[in-house]
């Protein structure tokens, strides 16, 4: 069996690792010219389901390395004012496993065949039941299954399920990261909390590696090359609809809303890494009816994009990857045919995917600032 995966995000790469482990041939096609072409280095919190799905797709020999480049988190989820005084709570504290997305992507890339600069432009189902994927800058590729893991703007979805389209929540946020130095020790209470300012919310989260990733890979799995990065604070400022200033850099846009805030908070944004900051919009995809069975399916944000405030998009994409690779292994071993295996995956994925989007949307209002007075 041969599988083409469109998209080298966490979901597509995790699937390709799971398939590699199962002895199924998989090639990944990524639109970006290089893996490091865009800012992708924010921290994620994984819950037990997502983390276990990730582990089960990775070779067991890399588990010690994975465990060394994550950390446990427990956050109190307070609401603080811009002077860091406690003014409320977002509900019960949450625990999880904190990972850096860029580090995780590099681990997941190891040993895979990934073609960069390979934006998928469309596909055709062939008379023999296989599928031919077409690309902007390379020859078509034929496989038994095409998996669209190509994110919220998925090209695969636009053909497979054209009625499923993203909804723009109107909410924008700027985010970036700042090296976690002693200077910011006093901010630790704010990690995981919401800082509520005038018309904006600022969210901070610490990424602390048990061992710096490059060093950990050198010690535990020399065949894996991980980026040379160190502990940092991820900051994200949520802006009201139409509240973003596109004429400023992301850190400048955040600072322009922070006059009179606690000096440590201002210093945190001032010292942020200019190459790792972005302005993003929150778009969601609520999956609807299942499409006609065939040799094409979807995974991750391509079919159930959540609001980041739900903290469950990556968890769900990793769960998809693990589930789909298990279903495909059954087909590869002849225990069921390919279309039945894909159907089993889609039925479960569409149900828990829709639930993940609902949960994330329920969590959104708690983070979105009140509208500014006109
Ligand atoms: C700031 C922020 C914080 C978040 N925090 C959390 C968290 O704490 N926990 C959590 O679970 N989730 C979190 N999420 C959500 C999570 O990051 C996403 O749900 C997850 O990364 C989706 O993975 P994916 O592989 O489905 O899609 P993506 O990561 O979007 O990957 C899609 C890939 O496909 C490529 N692509 C696009 N079009 C094409 C094409 N035509 N051909 C080929 N390739 C293409 C893209 O370049 C990209 O590399 C957060 C998101 C953000 C933005």
User: Class, according to the CATH hierarchy?
Assistant: Alpha Beta
Ends distance: 60 Å
Report the average pLDDT across residues.
Answer: 93
Helix fraction, binned, reads 25-40%
Which residues sit in consecutive blocks of at least 5 with pLDDT less than 50? none
CATH topological fold name = FAD/NAD(P)-binding domain
Give the structural class.
alpha/beta
| Outline | globular
Please describe the biggest sheet, giving its number of strands, its sense, and whether it closes into a barrel. Answer: 7 strands, mixed
CATH architecture classification: 3-Layer(bba) Sandwich
Tell me the number of helical segments per DSSP (H or I, 4 or more residues long): 11
Could you state the CATH homologous superfamily? FAD/NAD(P)-binding domain
**What is the percentage of strand-forming residues?**
25-35%
* Cα gyration radius (Å): 21 Å
Bound ligand species:
flavin-adenine dinucleotide
Number of domains: 1
Domain FAD-binding: 106-339
GO molecular function, one term: monooxygenase activity
Organism: Amycolatopsis ultiminotia
Pfam families: FAD_binding_3
């Amino acid at each position: 069996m041969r599988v083409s995966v469109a998209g080298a995000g966490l979901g597509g790469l995790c699937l390709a690792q799971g398939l590699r482990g199962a002895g199924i041939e998989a090639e990944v096609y990524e639109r970006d010219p290089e893996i490091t072409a865009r800012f992708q280095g924010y921290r994620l919190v994984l819950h037990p389901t997502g983390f276990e799905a990730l582990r089960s797709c990775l070779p067991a020999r890399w588990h010690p390395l994975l465990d060394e480049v994550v950390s446990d988190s427990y956050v109190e989820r307070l609401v603080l004012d811009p002077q860091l005084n406690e003014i409320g709570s977002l509900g019960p504290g949450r625990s999880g496993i904190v990972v850096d997305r860029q580090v995780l992507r590099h681990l997941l890339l190891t040993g895979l065949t990934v073609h960069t600069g390979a934006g998928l432009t469309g596909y055709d189902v062939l008379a023999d039941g296989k599928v031919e994927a077409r690309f902007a800058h390379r020859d078509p590729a034929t496989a038994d299954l095409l998996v669209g893991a190509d994110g919220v703007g998925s090209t695969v979805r636009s053909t497979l399920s054209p009625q499923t389209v993203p909804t723009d929540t109107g909410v924008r946020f700027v985010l970036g990261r700042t090296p976690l130095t002693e200077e910011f020790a006093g901010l630790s209470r704010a990690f995981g909390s919401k800082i509520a300012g005038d018309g904006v919310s600022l969210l901070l989260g610490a990424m602390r590696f048990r061992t710096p990733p490059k060093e950990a890979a050198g010690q535990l799995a020399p065949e894996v090359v991980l980026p040379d990065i160190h502990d940092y604070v991820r900051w994200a400022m949520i802006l009201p609809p139409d509240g973003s200033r596109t004429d400023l850099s992301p850190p400048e846009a955040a600072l322009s809303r922070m006059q009179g805030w606690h000096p440590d908070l201002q210093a945190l944004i001032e010292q942020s890494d200019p190459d790792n900051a972005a302005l993003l919009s929150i778009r969601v995809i609520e999956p609807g009816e299942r499409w006609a069975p065939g040799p094409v399916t979807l995974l991750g944000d391509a079919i159930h994009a959540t609001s980041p405030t739900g903290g469950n998009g990556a968890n769900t994409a990793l769960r998809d990857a693990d589930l789909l690779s298990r279903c495909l292994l059954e087909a590869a071993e002849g225990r069921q045919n390919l279309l039945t295996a894909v159907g089993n995956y889609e039925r479960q994925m569409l149900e828990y995917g829709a639930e993940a989007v609902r949960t994330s949307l329920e969590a959104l209002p708690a983070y979105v600032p009140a509208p500014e007075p006109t």
